[in-house]
Amino acid sequence: QVQLVESGGGLVQPGGSLRLSCAASGVTLGSYVLSWYRQAPGKERDLVATIGGVTTYADSVKGRLTISRDNAKNTVSLQMNSLKYEDTAVYYCHARRLVGGFNYHYWGQGTQVTVSS
Questions:
Q1: pLDDT above 90: residue 54
Q2: What is the mean predicted confidence (pLDDT) over 73-81?
Q3: Segments of the chain assigned E as strands
């Protein structure tokens, strides 16, 4: 059974930092495209960052958030610096792989990030 489990969320003041991690079991992340999404209250789930052949970021987080992967530990992380109120959301990790025309993808359960003074 595949599981993605996020950790590292919490309450932080504006300008602060957090590091989110996503640990996988039942799947080897090294062969997947990995992403972080976030969903604020009342809004759709939005793509924040992706790491695969290339690394891409949403414009709103460029220069502040950094996605990384550790294939040996089977994890993907999101370093979040200079946090803003509008970064408040539930953050989800996502793993995707296309095999034989079938798109395998998995979601974590999410971790809450709240930026507040």
A1: yes
A2: 97
A3: 3-7, 10-12, 18-25, 33-39, 45-51, 55-57, 65-70, 75-80, 89-99, 102-107, 111-115
